[in-house]
Amino acid sequence: MAGVSAQLGAIGQFSVSRNGRAGGLALLWRHGVKVSIRSFSSGHIAAMIERVTQNCFRFTGFYGNPDLASRKHSWELLHRLADGYSGPWVVGGDFNEVLELNEYLGRRYKPASQMRDFGMTLEDCGLTSMKYKGYKYTWTNNRSGDDRVQLRLDKGVANTAFFLAFPGAIVHHVNSLVSNHLPIFIHFGGLESVRWARRFMFEEMWTEIDGCTETVAQAWGKDQGDVVTKIKACQ
To answer: Which CATH code, of 3.30.70.580, 3.60.10.10, 3.40.50.720, 3.40.30.10, is assigned to 2-195?
Structure first.
């Protein structure tokens, strides 16, 4: 963790050890941010975040229990965290569940009761799924053909007070080549003002989208331009 903190320029950190091969949470922060850890468990880290130039808000890093039989304990945890709190609150992480069928792509049926429990929990806690940009699904089982399953498990959810305090907040699904999850980036001022090094990376999953082959062939078949120009045209 110390190496990661140094690489990211973090001055503070708080972590929760993983349980076996699953889970594990860490919260890191840089200069200009005051962080007060309020509670934690194997499935969450709750903290109050203060910045001079922004409203104070509560952030909860969340990890839904991967065991379906124990997932109810994750929803009970969200209920406890929401109890009695009315200030700006945003929750981000891997919920290990989808809200709707359109967040699920694969041949295996997703029981409606699981999605209903998740949706009712968010409603009870006054939380709403945030808008996002990027590839729709954030997790894949890394299989191909009919065995492939893709889900939107990772998301940001927030209450009304948060949306009022940060009306431009949006979640960006970031490309990844090292994990079967896409990292999510919650930006408070709107995607247009985000500044990071945008390196174009081709995702294997795109080959299964209609029109992908034609798009690449059209961009790469241009007579003029070097390789860099062709990659930009493909992007």
So the answer is: 3.60.10.10
